[in-house]
Specification:
Layout lengths: L1 E2 H7 L5 H9 L3 E3 L2 E2 L6 E2 L6 E3 L2 E2 L7 E6 L28 E2 L7 E8 L2 H8 L7 E8 L4 H9 L2 E2 L2 E2 L4 E6 L4 E8 L6 H8 L4 E9 L2 E2 L8 E3 L2 H10 L24 H11 L1
Parallel strand pairs: 9-15
Antiparallel strand pairs: 1-4, 2-3, 2-5, 5-6, 7-9, 7-17, 8-9, 10-14, 10-15, 11-12, 13-14, 15-16
Bound molecules: uracil.
The site of uracil has 8 residues, from helix 5.
Length: 271
């Protein structure tokens, strides 16, 4: 028996906190009876649970890592018709969502999941998830800029929290720097380097919490390993659900979601 809010979160209905709000608002029914008690427990395999009259379906938890290439948007659909990270999830049967965002011009590790509670926690500053980026920046980076980045940089939305900075290569034309941040503000790394006089030329995320990109190629994805699965839930201070990857691959790739216009353009390019 599990608490209703936990079952709702596992079913991908909402985060646990939002699920509690749904229960308090009288939108959740257990075996035909509206429940408003937050402590109510149920058996997801035997009990009939509905939200707004619609039965919920318990699905396996899916967690995966994608190496996002540049020139893809981190959204489920794009009104401008650009390629999205969803186009790369060939063979994935379940619906997963990007956890956080990488800019159109940024490549690297994108964690994707259908676990709403895990997602909320990983994005919440309280859980201090380290994000490590490798930035190629213009100009020779000097000690003073490194110190500024490390201490915190004043941006228009406030001073950034302390960062860890390692210079990997120094050259008068461009330098390569590895920077670890815990915040996740919009275009934060680019704005930080801009503020210290070194605009970013290339940006790649190589680590997200305990997950490391390693040699996954751009455009490829993979399931988490059991160790990564355990480490990720530990980082979010959550009890891990049963390990569910690798899951059977889909017979119809998600690619099918591409618009007819984009498919026609691709076919024309191949000719
Ligand atoms: N910081 C940025 O500037 N861009 C990203 O995509 C991620 C972090």
């Amino acid at each position: 028996m599990e608490r209703l809010q936990k079952i709702l979160a596992q079913a991908g209905v909402a985060s646990r906190r939002k699920a509690e709000e749904l229960i308090l608002a009288g939108k959740v029914a257990l075996n035909g009876e509206i429940v408003r008690e937050l402590g109510t427990k149920a058996n997801p395999e035997k009990d009939k649970i509905t939200v707004d009259g619609r039965p919920i379906t318990i699905q396996a938890t899916v967690n995966l890592i994608l190496h996002k290439p540049t020139s893809y948007v981190t959204t489920v659909s794009d009104p401008e018709g650009r390629r999205t990270v969803m186009d790369l999830l060939t063979d994935v049967n379940q619906r997963v969502y990007p956890v956080g965002r990488l800019d159109y011009d940024t490549s690297g590790l994108l964690f994707m999941s259908n676990d709403g509670e895990l997602t909320n926690r990983l994005l919440h500053p309280r859980y201090h998830v380290d994000k490590v980026y490798r930035a190629t920046v213009l100009g020779m980076i000097e000690k003073q800029a490194v110190e500024q980045l490390t201490r915190g940089v004043r941006l228009e939305d406030g001073v950034t929290a302390p960062a860890e900075v390692h210079v990997l290569r120094k050259h008068p034309l461009e330098s390569v720097v590895e920077i670890t941040i815990r915040e996740g503000r919009n275009r934060q790394v680019r704005r930080m380097f801009e503020a210290v006089g070194h605009p970013v030329k290339r940006l790649k995320r190589v680590q997200f919490g305990p997950l490391v990109l390693d040699d996954l190629k751009p455009g490829e994805w993979r399931w988490l390993t059991p160790d990564e699965w355990a480490a990720l839930y530990a980082a979010a201070d959550l009890e891990p659900p049963p390990y569910a990857g690798p899951i059977e691959k889909a017979r119809t790739p998600q690619k099918k979601r591409q618009s007819g216009k984009r498919q026609r353009a691709q076919t024309a390019r191949r000719r």
